[in-house]
Write a structure and sequence with these properties.
single chain; about 425 residues; alpha/beta; seven-stranded parallel β-sheet; seven-stranded mixed β-sheet; 14 strands; globular
C-alpha cells in the first residue's frame, strides 16, 4: 500500500554487501529510469559502490540501524525496501518495524526460518492494519520452491478447475558457492536454543495460528524420508534438510494463505545418482552440525576468517546454475511437470534478479496486484501482512521473472 509519490521507488538496504551490490547493479543497469537509492551505514562505502556502477549520481541514504528515527527518516522516502543485511535474526527486525510504521513495502533475501517466524509473530497483524506487504525470502531461499509450486497449482485451477493434492519438488542440480554473509547467517542459526532449532523442523512452523483453518495440514511431515525412489521422475531422492527447513515451511505458508487444496502437501528433496550417498553423507553432516552447535569458539573462529561482503568472482558466478523439477498432482490424480531453471548463479546473481523483480512487481505492477487482490483471480493474492512471494505477488511476479530470463514452465503428463 506504500505511496507511489515517494521520492524513491526502491531503497536497497545493505548496498555495500555482496548481494546488495548485485541488486544495485541489476536495478541501475536494467531499469535506469526507476529512482533507486542505496542505503547503509557508511556514506563513503555507498559512494564507492555508486561509482563502481558508473552511477556516481545515485542517491545515497545513511542510517543507524539501531536508531528507529534514523531508519524511519530514510524508509519513509521509498515505496519498497529491499534488505540484504544478514544475519537477519540479528539485524533485521528494526528495519521491518520501520517499514510497518512508515507504510513502506518490504522485500528481503533471508533464508532464516527463525527470523521469519519472529516477523510473523510481531508484524503480521500490524502490517495488515497498515496495508503493508512484508515479503521475506525472495532469493534462492525460497523462490524456486514457492513459484514452482504456484505454477502447478495455477495450472490445475485454470485448465481443469481442480485443486492440488501434492507437489514433490526435486533439486536436480544446484551449483553455488556461499558468500561470507551467507556463511555468517548460517552459523548464526546455531546460536539459537536447541528447542528453537527443533521447532523449525515442524511443518506448521511458519503457519500463523489464525491461518490453519484455510487448509494447511498439520499431519504433513517436514522431512519425508532419508531415501526414496520417485517413480515419476525415475530417480533416487534424498532429504536436503538445510533447504527443507526453509523452503517447505515457506511453501506451506503460501498454502495456508491461498489454500491450494484440502489435502495439499509439499515435499522437497535432492536428486542423487547413488542411493548409498545419503547413507554415508548424512551421518557425517549431522556430526559436523553437532560440533558447530556445541562448540561456540569454533563458530567464532570461522566468522573471524570469513568476511561478510565477500563472494565468488563474476566469472565463477556466471558458470553456476540451478535446476528444479516438480511433480504436481491434482485432486483427481492428473499430473504435471513443473520446471524452474536459473541461467546463472542462483545464490547471488539470480537472487539479485529475484529480489529486484519482486520489488518491481509492487512498484510497476501495483495496480494489477490491487485488482487481483480484490477479485481473487486464479489463486488470488493478498495485499498486506507477512506474506510469501506466491501470496504477495503471485503470477504477476512469475511473469516478470520469465521475462527476466528464469525458466518457470508447466508441462502436463499425458
Amino acid at each position: 500500500m506504500s505511496s507511489s509519490n515517494r521520492q524513491f521507488a526502491v531503497l536497497v538496504w545493505g548496498a555495500t554487501g555482496f548481494t546488495g551490490r548485485l541488486v544495485a547493479e541489476y536495478l541501475t543497469h536494467n531499469y535506469p529510469n526507476i529512482p533507486v537509492a542505496l542505503g547503509g551505514r557508511s556514506r563513503s562505502k555507498l559512494q564507492a559502490v555508486a561509482s563502481a556502477l558508473g552511477k556516481a549520481d545515485t542517491s545515497i541514504l545513511t542510517a543507524d540501524a539501531a536508531d528507529a528515527d534514523s531508519l524511519d527518516r530514510i524508509v519513509s522516502q521509498a515505496q519498497v525496501v529491499i534488505s540484504t543485511v544478514g544475519p537477519f535474526s540479528v539485524h533485521g527486525l528494526p528495519l521491518v518495524a520501520s517499514c510497518v510504521r512508515c507504510k513502506t513495502d518490504y522485500i528481503d533475501s533471508t533464508g532464516e526460518p527463525d527470523f521469519v517466524r519472529d516477523v510473523i509473530d510481531q508484524f503480521d497483524d500490524p502490517a495488515r492494519e497498515a496495508g503493508v506487504r512484508i515479503v521475506p525470502c525472495c532469493g534462492l531461499d525460497c523462490i524456486p520452491s514457492d513459484l514452482v509450486t504456484l505454477i502447478g497449482v495455477e495450472h490445475f485451477r485454470r485448465v481443469h478447475g481442480e485443486s492440488t493434492a501434492e507437489v514433490r519438488h526435486s533439486i536436480q542440480n544446484i551449483n553455488v558457492i556461499p558468500s561470507g554473509g551467507t556463511i555468517h547467517s548460517a552459523l548464526n542459526l546455531f546460536n539459537a536454543p536447541l528447542s528453537k532449532i527443533l521447532a523449525m523442523t515442524g511443518p506448521m512452523y511458519l503457519v500463523g495460528k489464525d491461518r490453519v483453518r484455510s487448509g494447511a495440514s498439520g499431519k504433513d511431515k517436514l522431512v519425508q524420508s532419508l531415501l526414496r525412489y520417485d517413480r515419476d521422475l525415475r530417480q533416487w531422492q534424498s532429504s536436503f534438510i538445510a533447504f527443507e527447513v526453509a523452503n517447505a515451511n515457506y511453501v506451506r505458508r503460501s498454502h495456508s494463505l491461498l489454500n491450494y487444496g484440502p489435502r495439499f502437501r509439499f515435499l522437497e528433496s535432492i536428486r542423487i545418482a547413488n542411493p548409498l550417498i545419503p547413507i554415508v553423507a548424512l551421518p557425517i553432516l549431522a556430526f559436523a552440525a553437532t560440533l558447530l552447535y556445541l562448540l561456540r569458539p569454533l563458530r567464532y573462529l570461522i566468522t573471524r576468517f570469513v568476511n561478510q561482503g565477500t563472494g565468488a568472482d563474476a566469472l565463477t558466478l556466471r558458470s553456476q546454475y540451478f535446476v528444479g523439477k516438480a511433480i504436481a498432482v491434482s485432486e483427481s490424480g492428473r499430473k504435471a511437470v513443473c520446471t524452474v531453471i536459473t541461467p546463472t548463479d542462483p545464490g547471488y546473481i539470480e537472487t539479485a534478479k529475484m529480489l529486484s523483480e519482486a520489488a518491481l512487481s509492487i512498484v510497476l505492477d501495483g495496480k494489477k496486484l490491487e485488482e487481483l487482490s480484490v477479485v481473487g483471480l486464479g489463486v488470488g493474492i493478498k495485499s498486506s501482512g507477512v506474506l510469501t512471494a506466491a501470496s504477495g505477488m503471485g503470477m504477476v511476479y512469475v511473469e516478470r521473472l520469465r521475462k527476466a530470463g528464469l525458466v518457470l514452465n508447466v508441462s502436463p503428463v499425458p
